[in-house]
Amino acid sequence: MAFYYESEDLNLRKKYNNLQYDELEEQDKQSAAYCISEQQMTTKQHEEQLQMDFEIIIKDIKNMCVYFTQKFIVQNENNTQLKKFPFIKVKNRVCHIFEKYQEQNTLLDQILEQICVSLMDVVKVYVLKYINNIGQSICEEFHNICDTIYILTKVRGIRTISRYCPHEVCNLEPVVMYLQNCSTDLNQNWETKYVILMWLSIIVLVPFDLNSIDSQIFNSIQDTFTSSNTIINSLLNLGVNYLKSSTKLRNMGALYLSKLFSRTDILKCNLLEQFLKWSVKQIHDLQDNILNTFYITGILETLVEILKVVQRDVLKDNLYILLPLLNLKQQGTLINLFLTKLTQRIGLVYLRPRVVSWTYKKGTTNLQQTLKIIDYSRIVTNSQISRTNQQLQQQQQSNIQLEDVDYFLDVDQEGLETVVDTLLQQIINKDTVVRWSAAKGIGRICARLNLDQADDIFDSLINTCFTPINGDTAWHGGCLALGELCRRGLILENKLESIIPIICKALIFEQNQGGYSIGVNVRDSACFIAWSAARAYDPEILKNHVLALAQHLVIVMIFDREVNVRRAASSTFQELVGRCPNIIPHGISILTEADYFSLAMIHNAYLRIAPFIASYPEYYKQMVDHLAFIKIASQDKEVRKLAAKSLGRLLVLDPTYFKDNLIYESILKMVRLQSLNQKHGALFALGDLLIAQSGNITKNSEEKELKDSVFLRTLTKNDRQLAKAGEHITIFKTQYEQLLQVDNMNLLSQEIIDEIMQIPKLLEDSLKGKSGEQIRIASYRLIECISISKLPLQVEQHAYYLKFIEDGLKNPLEEIQISAAKALRLLSNQYQIQGQFLIDGKEFLKRIIKQLNQKSTNAQVLIQGGYAQSVGAFSPQVLHNEDLSILYTIGLSKKRAKLTSWSIDPDTRKFAIKSLGQGIINQLNNNFNCDAQLLPVIDCILYAMLDYTVNKKGDVGLFIRENSIIAIQSILVSYVGYIERNHINNIIINEQYIIKIIGQLLQQLCEKIDRVRLLAGSVLQELFKSVFPKLQKFENYEQISAIFSTANLQQTIIKDQERVDQTFQSEIIEAEIKNLKDLLQNIGKTDLIYHWNLPHCCYRLIVPILAYPTFCRYILTGLCISVGGISESIQKFSEEALVQYIQNNQNLDLIMTNLIEILKLYALDERVVIPLFKTASLVLQKEEIQSLPMIKYYTETLIQLIYKETHKTQSINKLSASVQLIIDILSINAELFHQIIQHIYDILTSDFPKVRKQLADAFYLYLLSHDNEELISIDNNCLLQDYLLEIDWLSEELDKNMEECRSQLKKLLNL
């Protein structure tokens, strides 16, 4: 379970918070560098954590710098404190704390200067020292210092950290020399080179001519840009060399070169043009070899960075050099991405920055203009205002035309067209990052074009991306581009109307491809367009489109399959409501309920929030139509089922809409289609619609199932709290629950009902193949819903339904068998009560029992499971007075396997037990007398509760045990209700049965599987609360009942809460317990579920019951499995509870007596014997046990039983478990020495090396600590000890010389 495992972050936090060391320099107590303001922190706890982190960072950085300076710069080797300093651990802790602030990196700004300056000072001093001793190796600690700086740049960003780098001119040549003398392997210690290159990128911006500081000491780097050895060429070659790296060093090299080319002295040397030509040539030469991908990417990234920072006047005359790159053939994702970035940068160089006047601007941003307009409107007439506006518009148009003429004089129109065409092509690229980059490029370029040109691009975008034949890539790219244009106000009012239908289509975009669907990215980007439009445009402009957008956004945020899309739509809807107040109907109330957390759970969105929103008529039609015509045909099977359920819940809000709009007729047409998805979804939809139409939706069988998620769902406590219903849903719910119970069957025509009833028969041809399996399951669901809706059934239809169900029971797939059994249960309980239906039901039951009585073969194993689970599905009228002895036979088949030649499959036994329980429960609930059947059924179920069958699937008996626990509880609850209703005094469940039931439940409660303990504990709580007080009392009833009382468990929870919080993630624990409690409450179970699944809570409550002889054997049997098991947490807490009991109790003979009885009872059963040996060894080591008067008798009996278990056995595990127990018995009862020594000899000369070694070690320690001169002489004792130590008991040589070993041991042991 989730709460047993701490996250990686918690492990690291625990590891690094506990790191302690002697500081090398006193911390400045008055330093306020890490002090933070109240406004920055959300809570006091966060503030304290931040302050503590800052203190650790400053202290660790300072000590790291002192350590490095003292050891490698000052070279103070005599300082012993330096040797103790854990440099690597301190560095790892600092990096771990830095990475915690990746999402909120600005919080580090308050200490950034202090730590960056300290680290860079160390780097500077070491580099200057290194160039004076070129040739010596660079210490590893220097790489760790640079790695720390790199982590800081990764968290906070290059541009922020580089501000704190030293920038003296004198550092230029040393840094270049250091980089030139670094390893030629670019990937070796690349973080160090990254940091030094970042430093160099700051130094090269010094305001001096580089030639004036050139000392001519550099060697050129071969195979790069130029071979000259001037400082300028050395700087260029250095950067070009790093473009080949496959690491982040490549990005740093590109940034460094862009800054270098931004210098005027570099530009005067005409090196930029040479570099551009060299780059184009290199790319064309390298593009055919995939191994050069990183090099090409580095060159392209450098070109992009150069076009960002170099002046336009310098670049515009050289752009022709780069245009051939736009025609480069499609490469990998990285190359395409940087080609797209380069394309848009070329376009932005063509078009100098300007603010175009034609863009839409939301509101008035100039206060002076606003005041002028207000003042002017008070003194002029309307005609004057109109004339003035016309004059202003004419003047603006003439200004725009003049401006455009001047603006485009120096623009290469052909090159600009090439740029735009390339971006439009990249909009439909297969890679998302490329499409996103192209979309941003189109937005940036359109923001500098005139209106006509931008309109042309807009039209091309619409025609290119949003055609019916386009796939998800084109739609996604187009949506991203439209979102960018909207965000910048580049789509005017007259064009806005044309994109609203596109947004609405994109919001529900989905395309099926084989077994999956695509379109998630399209729907997400459509939310981005709507979000951008809401922010960019005035409500007056959007008011005609807001309702359509809101309706589609509601559909997406409720019914979309992906949680991120639902949340994106919710965020967009929130933006619309906030930006367009009083325009979106019921916006605030919808937002209150459909928020980030409540939409996280898809079941919650479909089944609770959807009916609430659909209660507003503005959204009802769109939601119903979307479910009825799109979602029930979804590619995802679970979405189809949810859509069907949700459609049923929406029907009750307006049943006439379904009739008037022929919803039933449309869904019935889908049943006849060939598409599996449509047919499957339509069958589920018809079923749920029938249930809702008949007012029986609260009786839906699927809503009351106790699923496995009871144990496995771990939704946190906070998420559950946030997903709770708000005040709007709470008010709506009271009225809605009444609507759920209204019968609207009068609105459904008889023709539609007849057609629905005939569907299972019409689908005979669709039940073949893989798709037929899902159709068959959906058909059984339809039969269930017909039964729940109580539709009138003809005898012929009933007979066909039974035949159809029988086909499902014979199907080898368990899912189909379960669906068929559920359909039979509802059909039988609704119709097979009297008359011909009852006769048909009894005949069907006889056929099933006849099939079960046939001898099981391999081919019939799976079929028998279907038949077995169907028996309990019949109505009590059908089952009454029928012979169900075959189910006892199946349930006890494992017990009788030794007497017969066959044994039933574990799954069949599980279904048989379940059917036995259901059959008895149904009859008791309907007041049928079951006295003759009740006790045999209980015996069978109690036997099944001890089923520990293991096969290649694992512990398959687990499911039998779980079903037995649930069945025994349900039977007892039903029986108590039966005797109370009928005032029966003769209770046949006597004290003996009650003790056996409680004992076996206690045994399950002490075992090692958490989910079984949780189930058994909750069942015992319920039985002691509502069942056992009404049955016969047994010995010590009051004491045991007190342990399981709600008051005692509540007090225990309160006492243990602090311990639970410290040991486990208590939120997850509480959520898991609460989940079980919620589900059990739905079927009338207890109010409180204790932490039975937690070993440290469970065992110390149950182990004290060992003091009561009635239940001692049961508890000890389960406890042995836990104490002697392999699970660390189970073993630890069960052993702790047992030891504590032994130390605090008197009647310990009871434990020894029962241990012996259990060993006899489970003889040769390794599942019990092996852990029992370990438990017995633990018990015998306690002084309280060793001092018992009868201990010699107990040890004598134990050694006899051990000998029977291990004599001639081939089980290594059993022999290994017996070793320590044998030695412990020998330590207690020396009288058994001669008997035990023979057994020791047998094991030491066996064929199992590990067991030999284990026994030799244990026996040696015994001889060392015990001085039994009467049994073995001192000389022999010493010789035996030496022999046990000298022999290599694991070696193969010993196996070859075993005869010699035997003779030697006989001699030493006096055998």
From TrEMBL:
Q: Name one GO molecular function term.
A: beta-tubulin binding
Q: Which residues form the Tubulin-folding cofactor D ARM repeats domain?
A: 336-588
**Which keywords does the record carry?**
Chaperone
Q: Please list the residue ranges annotated as the Tubulin-folding cofactor D C-terminal domain.
A: 996-1214
The record's Gene Ontology biological-process terms are: microtubule cytoskeleton organization; post-chaperonin tubulin folding pathway; tubulin complex assembly
Say yes or no: keyword DNA repair present. Answer: no
Q: Which domain of life is it from?
A: Eukaryota
Keyword Chaperone listed: yes
User: What InterPro entries does the annotation carry?
Assistant: ARM_TBCD_2nd (IPR058033), TBCD (IPR033162), TBCD_C (IPR022577)
Q: Which PANTHER family match?
A: BETA-TUBULIN COFACTOR D, TUBULIN-SPECIFIC CHAPERONE D
- Name of this protein: Tubulin-specific chaperone D
Which species expresses this protein natively?
A: Paramecium primaurelia
Please spell out the taxonomic lineage of the organism that makes this protein.
Eukaryota, Sar, Alveolata, Ciliophora, Intramacronucleata
